[in-house]
Design goal:
Blueprint: H1 2-15, H2 22-25, H3 30-55, H4 85-110, E1 117-118, H5 123-140, E2 142-144, H6 145-152, H7 160-166, H8 168-171, H9 195-215, H10 221-246, H11 251-272, H12 281-297, H13 308-324, H14 330-335, H15 351-361, H16 365-374, H17 376-387, H18 391-414, H19 421-425, H20 428-431, H21 433-443, H22 447-451, E3 452-454, H23 455-461, H24 464-474, E4 476-477, E5 482-483, H25 491-520, H26 525-551, H27 557-596, H28 607-612, H29 624-651, E6 670-674, H30 680-690, E7 705-709, H31 725-732, E8 737-741, H32 743-755, E9 774-778, E10 782-788, H33 792-808, E11 816-820, H34 823-828, H35 833-855, E12 860-863, H36 876-881, H37 884-896, E13 905-907, H38 909-913, H39 928-945, H40 965-980, H41 1005-1015, H42 1021-1030, H43 1040-1048, H44 1061-1068
Parallel strand pairs: 8-10, 8-11, 11-12, 12-13
Antiparallel strand pairs: 1-5, 2-3, 4-5, 6-7, 9-10
Helix pairs in contact: 3-4, 3-11, 3-26, 3-27, 3-29, 4-25, 5-9, 7-10, 9-10, 9-23, 9-24, 10-12, 10-16, 11-12, 11-25, 13-16, 13-40, 17-41, 18-21, 24-25, 27-29, 32-39, 33-35, 41-43, 43-44
Amino acid sequence: MGDHLQENKDSFLQQDAGNDSILANAKTSTSTIAMAMFFGTIIFTTASLVARLWLTGLWRWRNGAPPVNATKGNDISQPLDTSHLPSIYNLLYHFTVFGLILFYSYICEHHPPYFHEEKTYDRDEFFFWMILVVVFAGGHTLRRNDEIERRGKDVPYVGEGARSNVNDFSSLLRNQGYDETQKATLLPENEVLNRCQTEEWKGWMQFTFLMYHYTHAMEIYNGIRVMITCYLWMTGFNNFSFFYTTNDYSLTRVLQMVWRLNFLVFFLCLTHGNPYILYYICPLHTFSFFMVYAVMFIGRGRNYSKWWIRIKLGVLALIIFCVWDCDNGIFEMMHKLFLSDEVIAGASMGSRWEWYFRSYLDHWSTLLGMIFALNFPIVSLFYRKLEARSKQIQWIGKLAVAAGMLVVFLLWVNGPLMYSKIPYNSTNPYFGFIPLVTYIYLRNLTPKMRSYSMELLHNIGKTTLETYIMQHHIWLTSNSKTILVFLPGWPRVNLALVTYLYVILSRKLHDLTLHIRGMLLPNDRGACINSLVYMALALAGFYCAAFLLEGMNMISLPIVGVVSILCGTLLYQTVMDFSWKAYRKMAQKEKTSVDADDGDDYTVTSQSERSDYSTEQESTDETVYSKFYPPLIGAMVLLVLGLSWSEFAAAGASAVGPLPVSCGAFVNDGMWIPIDGCNESSRGIAYRNYGSTSYGSCTPPSNSYVWAWKEQPSHTHCRFGHRNEEKLKQILNRREVVFIGDSMTRYLYHASMQAMGIKGSGAYDATGPKHADISNTLFGTTPINFKWAPLAVDQLTILKEINRLASEDMGIRPDLIVLGGGAWDLLHLYATDEDRQSHAATLNDLGFEMRKAQELGTPVVWLIPTTINSQALNTEEKRDHMREEDMESMRWVYANSGILSSSSFVIDGPVFTSSRVSESYDGVHYPPQVYSAGAQILFNALDWLLPPGIVEPVPPPRIGKMANPVLGAAMLILVTIGLVCCDGFMGFSYLASLFVKGVMPHQLYDEAFAALHIRLGLHSPDMVRANTEMSPWRLSSNAAPVVVHFAKNESRYRGNNLRSIEEVSELLGPQNEVE
């Protein structure tokens, strides 16, 4: 039998030969080809420039002198100067690194060195990593915030600038010379929600989020939803703070922020051919940004009056209520033109429903963050007011607020948090803020708690966007559904290696995004527009080229390389024409300056350094090598990348998908692996799930075995694996499967039923009929039946009838037939020569009908009889005619009669039974778990036996289905409390006023905002009068010294419009006379 199966393997391999087009095999999208040519052009140009600079001895000055139009104080990158070669090289270099990282992500996703692995969840392991990193490692790096800032040397940027601007609310109040007995001293490092603290917050949430994805820890799904709520809350909080403190609503600011959120994901979508909705966090944050921008932009001239901004937020709350909490069709009307019900990656119900679902889950979060930001100066002052009191009074006030929050928090923990996934989703928009505000309040409870942060988590939090996006492709794969493997068989070591590369590249992408943005989107509206227009034209040009090549069926790596070289040569020559001469002059000047200064840091001290300073000649003196070799070197670099891509595609695995037909050569190559049931992991699961503290049976011979496939070369793309009920439902939906054969086939049928959710199938029942047909309908749509046909003639009769019905009535045929037999023929009809001749004729007819069934569109699978345990045969007749040596002869008879070659696929029964023959209790049959291996072999073969599953269009749920006007109305009330009562904690802060006087948030408004508004140039006498007239509370006596102090020191503050101290004193009234 082994020789025949080997021949069958060769035939399978031949079917897959000849298809050597790498890009065709990978089903590469048009956008992927466009990105290959786009970045190929850039890499060619960069390599050519590097070669030109090196060959001419000008490499040392590649960074050159700063461009003429450099922005002073820009610590990130200088705006692009197209006449300045170092500036052009800088941009091309960073785009080259960016492109190489995208190339790495594409290889990891589509041509990894080893097969992607399925996720497995172990609760113990999940919490081990959480405790190790968040508690131990994070706690070990606990440091003062000012120390972290110094060590990290953080560079603010637009977006992070929003976070740093949050501190402007309170930093403007700091050390202004007024009565500090009324409130505790405020320092940058102990401010509420200071930058280090928010980075730490994002860091531990991001780590939890990543471990949730990596380990498939679905039991903490509800907690993960709260963390996404926190991220969107911070988007509202940060951007509101930025706009409020900077009053910057320019197009440049908008473009820079949209770039920050979408630059990486935009190119990832193009590189991998994925839809935008797959990375749903990015559209959510982008939408939230525009929501904040629109609210702050409309009527921005009155944003600093007390009630106008609150009225705008109230109107936004009403809009949110009408769009998401009322089932009135507004949401669908708003998105009908942009989104559809077409099934795409990341949106199994269509992009319209996916966006509705994702946006619904957190539709209040951004607004709540904006309200907290609006009331932030009051929150900060509230803490300091309490902390200026005696310890006893301070803690009574703080604990009163904490008690109120904890009561509500515990109600949430024992209520919505305990819901299953789907019910919880409907509650998250309305209750997800409870743990959020509780965490903020308790995390900032004391100045010391606010002054310290965990540096490790702080560093993780700085690159949350990049780590979230890149987890899909270079940490996990298959859009975060499987695990990337570099070291098979070493899961923990593999995790360490993959994680290291993932973190390093994510941090690099963070820096690249900011650096390239600084060059292409400087603080110049015209330069921003020009950069975006040119980039759009370039990308559109390459996409059109890819589209044309695809239409002409000319997609291949050599063609992509040629196009890249041609375009790269044109770009390289353009750069040379516009900037090379000026660059040579600049380099000559710099060289002369360095040579003239023998005492500076650039003194030539060695012969190798002297060569770098060799005398520069005019361009006419350049050698032929320096002129013509650079493009050749650029082409060689592209050749190396192309060969690397080709090698990975040829020798590597593939993205997760249906197995190719060539895997039929290997799917029977498996073995039973003994496992230790008493290891630490198993003991932990037994204790947690079953209350067991010890095992009585561990390693074999206690039947502790699992079926496993032998390792196959990656290039076979044969990623065999366990097919569970969910996967089988997808494959077999609305199909019909018929098993025809003897008791061996029946046992395989029962094992298949158990794998598909019928756990009682094949249970021992001495009262039921043994030799009878069995019918089952699975999933409500899939009939799977067994026909009792122990003899070859019985199998032939049934198969003829199936073929007759299929020939006469189109469509009446099963989708798959599984045949098996030989044991009964050997036992009852194989004693004489006449019996053998009759049996041979029957087999010839059976082979014909099998081939006919395949011609009619039904694949036929043959089950080779399993191994016989001769010593366990329980009748004399069986011991005389059914020994294993007799059965092996019968297997050869079936093979030589063409039964195996007439099959679409063969399940090799002895493969999964020979090593467990001693467990055959009657000599013929085995325990059910043994047949599960044969069922899994069959299920894996379904990938190529059956065409893609019949997926009937499932209408997505109705838009508006999740609306809850009652809870939405409750949120309107809560928002009103936050706005009218001026409390970022949504009214909880008032609990402190029951025990401590002078800390009601609405009474702190004037004092909290006075310094900020004066600093922003808003407290001219007219503005002070307007604010006091609009407010139901006149400017408090606590605020008066603040205004007076700013009036006295108006020259120190930007935009101060106070005309004189006397005018301020007059506005404050006689009781607040200026000293």
